[in-house]
Amino acid sequence: MTTRRPVAESLFTWPDAPLRLIGSECAACGLVSFPAAPDCVRCASAESKERILADHGTLWTYTTQNFRPPSPPYDGPESFEPYSVGYVELPGELLVEARLTEPDPDKLRIGQTMRLTLVPYAVQDDGTEVMTFAFAPAEEETP
Amino acid sequence: MTEAVIIGVGLHPFGRFPGKPALDMGAEAVRLALADAGVKWPQIQGGYIGSYEVANPDAIVGRLGLTGIPLRGVFNGCATAGTAIALASRAIETGEHDLTVAIGLDKHPRGAFAADPSVAGIPSWYGQTGLFLTTHFFGMKINRYMHEHGISHETLARVAAKNFGNAAANDKAWRRTPLSVEEILASPILNYPLRQYMYCGPDEGAAAVVLCRSDQAHRYTGKPVRVRATALRSRRLGAFEVQSPSFPVGEPVDSPTVDASKAAYERAGIGPEDVDVAQLQDTDAGSEIIHMAENGLCKDGEQERLIAEGATGIGGRLPVNTDGGLLGNGEPIGASGLRQIHEIVLQLRGSAGARQVPGTPRVGYTHLYGAPGASAVTILST
What we know:
The complex is a heterodimer. Chain A is mainly β. Chain A contains no helices and nine strands. The two termini of chain A are about 25 Å apart. In chain B, α2 links the parallel β2 (about 45-50) and β3 (about 70-75). Chain B has helices spanning about 20-35, 60-65, 80-95, 125-130, 135-150, 155-170, 180-185, 255-270, 285-295, 305-310, 325-330, 335-350, and strands spanning about 5-15, 45-50, 70-75, 100-105, 190, 195, 205-215, 225-235, 245-250, 275-280, 365-370, 375-380. Chains A and B meet through β3, β5, β6 and β7 of A and α4, α5, β5 and β9 of B.
């Protein structure tokens, strides 16, 4: 069985279910941040609490990545497959930048509903898959 | 308050110069600017110098003369040179110096910029998973802008074709081969909707500007160029900026370009309708389109018609990036904004040769934008 690990701790709830992004909320002014931020960039308070973010939102904008990013910092596979990147608006919370599962820009549309998922963006030498968060078009969802 | 005026400009060509250190390029640019001003290096009382790659750009005095003057290193991402000219002007305005220099130089390796995200205050996973690319921001910003304001892919290509065409008339530019709209639209997509020939590339080069007090300008030149305003702004919460893992929901917040532009117009007492020639940060073709509006030079969406009409061409009513801009010249970060100033000074003197804007331009405008959300604007006039 394939071993999997998250790219970073405290970024999303997986392997606990359900999958959600872990943000923070300023204890003083309520500003929502992702990734979780100890200090508030609006009111400068240093008190915050964890906030589990919504797993659905709408695509605000997007682009594609058609060349392999410089390494470091990118540590994905040498055999490069183009991917997409976008901002998804989580209503009332924030706009979050993420990889998108759909690489074809003609199949993406500003305003479409997106749902949170995970992608194995890299495989380590020992076969461990490194997982990061991504958003997928919600209409692909199978009930 | 004393006004600062530009009396000399110097530009080392932009491009690739194997084996030539950035400091040598910078020294050449300074010598050209000094010769243009009719000033000797020992007369210079201080200066501001910017570079991304050179750790101690003030080591340039080892090429120019160890006269003991204060040289302050400045760095503000792609707004570095705007900061250098602003501080050099301020040194004149406050009376600290009578004669000063702003210098920019850089020598970047090939390919997209790469760095450790931590230096930008960004977590490691952002870079590891392939999100830490400034080109993403530019792709995403123009994609949203095109959606909201009806800008076409052809308009992106027209901007690039114009800038490569202008660069062809500039013997100091890097990309001097004209490209047609069709050739640009046939080049591969790098970050949708932006294609290979719609992006500038990091390269090498240097530029320098000599400034003095306006009341002493007559000693050096009959055609001083006045520094009417400089402004620098950083990003505000809620603005959509480069390298942002997230940003707040809510009403759109203006970019630092809008803030810097408004501040500069107010300080100069000059409005966008007075601008005769502009140099705008065209990291990519989409950026030039967006920056036309963010700098008040047109309304959002008007670019589609203006560009189709050729308004931003050298013979148009609002010439933009007459020397080829970043698309034609590439971007040595520390030098880029002083290359813009160099071009505006030539245009206002009427000495831009084949690129000269007709009708005696009197007001010139320069603009920079870069990570992590910094913008610098300079307004110059005769």
